[in-house]
């Protein structure tokens, strides 16, 4: 299965190649117009490349705040007080990975009602 270069869902026939030059730039596949637009904008800024690493890093950083809010609400913040930022990020990444894996598996099995 070819996955979307932006969100990791199944790609569905949307493609982007910088300057339409597949001899010089990689072709990326996307699941939707929305991801195609996002990917195209990144590639135009980035010499035809889509590097999600920076985006992911920033997204995980922003997710920390949401996790902190929930932990505070549940009164669990004290338990995480001694955790480093890297440990918090591992927790967030584990949730995201598990979620994406399960979503992809269900898509492959066609279990998802559309
Ligand atoms: Zn996508």
Number of structurally distinct domains: 2
Helix-residue proportion: 40-55%
Q: How many separate helices?
A: 3
- Rg measurement, Å: 18 Å
Tell me the major beta sheet. 2 strands, antiparallel
Spans where pLDDT lies below 50 across 5 or more residues: none
Bound molecules: zinc ion
Terminal residue distance: 19 Å
Principal-axes shape call: elongated
β-strand percent reads 5-15%
SSE arrangement, N to C:
EEHHH
Taking all residues together, what is the mean pLDDT? 87
Helix/strand class: mainly alpha
Q: Please count the beta strands (DSSP E, at least 2 residues each).
A: 2
What strand line-up does the widest sheet have? 1-2
Overview of the structural elements:
It holds the Pfam family DUF6511. InterPro entries: DUF6511. With 114 residues, the chain is mainly α. It folds into 2 domains: 1-50, no CATH class; 51-114, no CATH class. It contains 3 helices and 2 strands, in the order ββααα. The protein has helices at residues 33-45, 52-73, 85-109; strands at 14-17, 27-30. It has a two-stranded antiparallel ribbon. α2 (52-73) packs across α3. The longest helix is centred in the last third of the chain and has 25 residues, at 85-109. The mean pLDDT is 87. Zinc ion is lined by residues 4, 6-7, 9, 30-32, 35.
Quick summary of this structure?
InterPro entries: DUF6511. Pfam families: DUF6511. This protein has 114 residues and is mainly alpha-helical.
């Amino acid at each position: 299965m070819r996955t979307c270069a932006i969100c990791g869902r199944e790609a569905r026939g949307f493609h982007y190649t910088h300057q339409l030059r597949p001899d010089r730039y990689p072709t990326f596949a996307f699941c939707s117009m929305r991801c195609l637009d996002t990917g195209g904008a990144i590639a135009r800024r980035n010499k035809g490349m889509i590097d999600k690493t920076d985006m992911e890093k920033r997204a995980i950083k922003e997710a920390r705040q949401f996790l902190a809010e929930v932990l505070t609400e549940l009164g669990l913040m004290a338990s995480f007080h001694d955790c480093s930022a890297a440990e918090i990020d591992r927790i967030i990444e584990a949730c995201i990975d598990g979620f994406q894996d399960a979503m992809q598996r269900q898509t492959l099995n066609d279990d998802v009602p559309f």
